Amino acid sequence: MIQAIIFDLDGLLIDSEPAWDKSYIVFLKKHNIVDKPEISEKMTGMGLKDAIGIMVGELGLRGDVDELTEDYRQLFYDVFLKEKHVLMESAGDLVQKLNGKFKLAVATGGHTGEKCSQILKNIGIDKYFRVIVSSDDVNKGKPAPDVYLETARQIGVQPLNCLVLEDAVNGVVAAKAAGMIVFGVNADERMRSDLEKAGADEVYRSLKEVSI
Question: Which of 134, 149, 167, 171 could hold 11 in an S-S bridge, CB 3.0 to 4.6 Å?
Answer without folding.
Answer: 167
